Amino acid sequence: MLDRAAIETVYRHEAGRVLATLIRLVGDFELAEEGAQDAFEAALTRWPQTGLPDNPRAWLVNTGRHKAIDRLRRRISLRGKLKVLAAETAVAPQPDAEDIEDDRLRLIFTCCHPALALETRVALTLRTVCGLATSAVASIFLVSEETMAQRLVRAKSKIREAAIPYQVPDREHLAERLAGVLAVVYLAFTEGYAPSAGTASTRPELCAEAIRLCRLLDQLLPGEPEIAGLLALMLLHAARLGGRSDGAGELLLLEEQDRTRWDRAAIGEGKALVERALAQPGRIGPYGVQAAIAALHAEAPNFAATDWPQISGLYQVLLRLQPSPVVELNAAAALSMVDGPERALQLVEALAAAGTLDGYWPLHAARADLLNRLGRGAEAQAAYARALPLVRLEAERRLLERKMRG
Amino acid sequence: MQYLLMIYGDEAAMGAATAEQGKAMGEAYARFTQDIVKSGHLKGGDKLKPSSTATTIRRGDGKSLTTDGPFAETREQLSGYYIVEASDLDEALAIAGKIPFSAGAVEVRPIDSLSRMY
To answer: CATH code at A39?
Structure first.
């Protein structure tokens, strides 16, 4: 006998694919969502009597499609006959099984379309592709459920009204659009790893969701080195989450962390993916390089025995691929572990003089650290004092204060 | 689906262009327009006279006020538009991306043709 919990389990497993296919079949996000929800309700009443269908996914798609057509007919009768023709031709015939996997990819590319605002892309992807409840997405963005629901409605309405296509971009545009998709995935991950707002110091469930989404992309677009690179980067960062704070919840510096608390299985998987990402020399991208850096940190037995020369070299590669002041800062910090603090301080001073990172506390903290290592304690204290008011997370503030005390 | 491609640019900068630059720009636009005529995308469009020739009727609180100037005083002004037929936003964006404007922006807006009144 199938109970509600068992049906819910099946539905949760299939919901993403069912929705993605229904959107293509009925050509409308909201109608498809309603159809999928109707199909789930129908399963709750039908399946306890009939037993689980041989192919629950096909059953849900078919039922959802019929329910969506019913809804369309009801709407049409309300709004007059003008749209009847357009609406009926919009409902395409049944899908074949192969199309269903492609539908998930179409859905991802549509939710991550550059015609939507970046934050909207993340929200819509988490809601529609990952199946998070609107309330859960709202809590990630620290807005009310109602506000998030409105934002999602506006996004779906833009997709419909501006005719954002439900398709995987052609070869000419794939690389550029994939980069946009990966940016959404990575933004979701970094919001989990270091939330930009709120009081939680991490949101591990969001990290896990981003990793799950990237695995799906890797499965749907096999052989793309930047997908492997990003997946590796996230796995290697997430593997170290457990060591990032002590029992009392205090943040620990890399050199203070208990490396036995790092997740070795995730590190192993990350390292294998890094090798895959770097296997096509002409197609190495920023995520692959950052993942390679993370892999070197993850496999080092301790801080001092880290392969700093190679990390420093990789930062130079990253600077060529994706120049930015933040990368320059990290490159300088890595260089200080190879050549000592003097040259690195010159680079950091030049960055500080440029002023673009004035509001970025790690710049002042890195400068303070280098000054300390050069025995210039008073200047270091002044630099820490500049970093302190810029810190937002309580745990980061305590870490800085601890460093100030020496 | 039809889209309105609105071309915005800095009129002062355009006015400061040399005769040669103006000629090159005119030729580039002529080529682009011919291209979208041939491909069947073009439904309409024109260059506009400068925003100094614009008149705005503003209405609110039951009153109408006719004023000199464009709807919004901005650094960039609407200088011309195309109406194109495209299958979806990606195709419209691809066409808009080929408009030979040198600086400024093109806004792409779907036309609500279901509500057409003629």
So the answer is: 1.10.1740
Confidence (pLDDT) at A72: 85
Give the tens place of pLDDT for each residue, B62-88.
888 888 888 887 889 999 999 999 999
Residues of A in contact with B110 (CB under 8 A): 161-163
- The residue range of the domain holding A91 is 4-95
Share of chain B above pLDDT 90, in %: 60
Domain limit, last residue, from A50, A75, A95 = A95
Chain A 146-175, CB below 8 Å of chain B: which residues? Answer: 161-165, 167, 169, 173
From residue A362, alpha-carbon distances to A48, A218, A278, A368, A371 in Å are: 58, 33, 29, 10, 14
Q: Is residue A197 part of a domain?
A: no
Whether A11 is in a domain gets the answer yes
The angle at the Cα of B81, spanning B79 to B86, to the nearest 5 degrees, equals 155
Q: Please identify every stretch of chain A with a pLDDT value under 50, giving residue numbers as ranges.
A: none
Evaluate whether residue A245 is within a structural domain: no
- For residue A297, give Cα distances in angstroms to A242, A269, A314: 15, 15, 12
Identify the residue whose tokens are 């969001």.
Answer: A206
For residue A156, what pLDDT is reported?
93
Has residue A212 been placed in a domain? no
- Alpha-carbon distance B87 to nearest alpha carbon in chain A (angstroms): 8
Place of tokens 């439904």: B43
pTM of the model: 0.82
Count Cβ atoms below 10 Å from residue A95 Cβ, excluding itself.
18
Quickly state the pLDDT bin for B46 (edges 50, 70, 90).
very high
Torsion of CA A10, A11, A12, A17, to 10 degrees: 110
Task: Give the tens place of pLDDT for each residue, A172-218.
Answer: 888 889 998 999 999 899 988 888 777 777 888 889 989 999 999 99
**pLDDT (0 to 100) of residue A13:** 87
Q: Which of A79, A95, A111 is the last residue of a domain?
A: A95
CB A235 within 8 A of CB A297: no
With beta carbons under 8 A apart, name residues in chain B contacting A163: 1, 87-89, 110
Interface ipTM: 0.80
CA separation for the pair A110, A126 (Å, rounded): 13
Q: How many domains does chain A have?
A: 2
Q: Distance (Å, rounded) from C-alpha A181 to C-alpha A188?
A: 11
Give the C-alpha separation, A202 to A129, whole Å: 22
* Domain topology for B2-115: Alpha-Beta Plaits (3.30.70)
Contact assessment for residue A171 and residue B92, using Cβ atoms and an 8 Å cutoff:
no
Domain containing residue A392: CATH number = 1.25.40.10
Q: Chain B: which residues have CB within 8 Å of chain A?
A: 1, 87-90, 93, 108-110, 112, 114
